[in-house]
């Protein structure tokens, strides 16, 4: 890493950059950079820790700027909603649209993320409202039951399986289309396969329900996914689904906010989604 190049990118003199780093080192009593034998510098452990904190501060400053600009333009609130893909493949988009129509003065910002990442964003103040699956993730948050997310088995329309329902253990002789390693559905499948003392034959891994359905259509295997997501693609791709009879197939979904004081717009979105729960 070149300090002079970094100074050029920030449009300040090298001496000014060195001075600012020196002031920070004096303030905290630690070294932030170490010189390399061949020239240049690299951050120390304390330097990397400080950089991580600064990134968080800069994100918060950016968010503050956006919020104040919205208020200046007549908005009365800004709510960041992070939700898992199951929620966004279900009723959540229309429920948020209903809220946006009723409360146009509140700006909604929506982002898709894994449930575990939604919780992290809530706790680090990068999200205001979260929709997640997984009771084990909810410590330290104010949560309410939102809906039941029912998983099913998606198969090609012409597949030899003719039953309307099955346990996963009875399907483990077939290949499966799975999701990446951070997906909660993958974990549920792996645990169920281990309990049945059979291997889970993941032939393909994908990132989205649409991609999984297209791989099923192409004959690469079966897949486990929420019923509502499966219904979206069934007719167009000639697929059908079986009811999954395992107890873990009915997953509770929760809407969450941070504990303690929250703004009235955040509370309004939270209460709206609770009222829509089923």
Automatic annotation (TrEMBL):
Q: Which InterPro entries match?
A: HTH-type_LysR_regulators (IPR050950), LysR_HTH_N (IPR000847), LysR_subst-bd (IPR005119), WH-like_DNA-bd_sf (IPR036388), WH_DNA-bd_sf (IPR036390)
Keyword DNA-binding appears in the UniProt entry: yes
Q: What is this protein called?
A: LysR family transcriptional regulator
- Superkingdom of this protein's organism: Bacteria
Q: Does Ubl conjugation show up as a keyword for this record? A: no
Q: One GO MF term, please?
A: DNA-binding transcription factor activity
UniProt keyword annotations, A-Z: DNA-binding, Transcription, Transcription regulation
Which family is it part of?
Belongs to the LysR transcriptional regulatory family.
**Cellular compartments per GO CC:** cytosol
Q: Which residues form the HTH lysR-type domain?
A: 1-44
């Amino acid at each position: 890493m070149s300090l002079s190049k970094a100074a050029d990118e920030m449009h300040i003199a090298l001496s000014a950059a060195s001075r600012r780093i020196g002031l920070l080192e004096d303030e905290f009593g630690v070294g932030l950079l170490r010189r390399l034998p061949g020239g240049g510098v690299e951050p120390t452990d304390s330097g990397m820790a400080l950089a991580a904190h600064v990134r968080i501060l800069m994100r918060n400053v950016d968010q503050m700027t956006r919020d104040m600009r919205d208020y200046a333009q007549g908005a009365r609130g800004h709510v960041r909603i992070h939700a898992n893909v199951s929620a966004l493949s279900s009723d959540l988009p229309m429920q948020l649209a209903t809220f946006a129509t009723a409360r146009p003065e509140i700006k909604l910002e929506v982002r898709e993320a894994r449930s575990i990442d939604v919780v992290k964003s809530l706790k680090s103040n990068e999200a205001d409202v979260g929709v997640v699956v997984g009771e084990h993730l909810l410590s330290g948050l104010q949560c309410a039951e939102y809906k039941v997310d029912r998983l099913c088995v998606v198969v090609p329309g012409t597949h030899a399986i003719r039953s309307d329902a099955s346990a996963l253990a009875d399907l483990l002789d077939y290949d499966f289309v799975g999701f990446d390693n951070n997906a909660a559905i993958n974990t549920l499948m792996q645990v169920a396969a281990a309990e049945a003392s059979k291997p889970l034959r993941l032939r393909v891994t994908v990132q989205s329900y649409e991609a999984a359905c297209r791989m099923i259509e192409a004959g690469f295997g079966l897949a486990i996914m929420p019923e509502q997501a499966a219904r979206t693609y069934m007719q167009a791709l000639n697929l059908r689904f079986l009811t999954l009879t395992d107890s873990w197939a009915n997953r509770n979904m929760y809407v969450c906010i941070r504990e303690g004081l929250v703004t009235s717009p955040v509370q309004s979105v939270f209460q709206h989604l609770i009222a829509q729960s089923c």
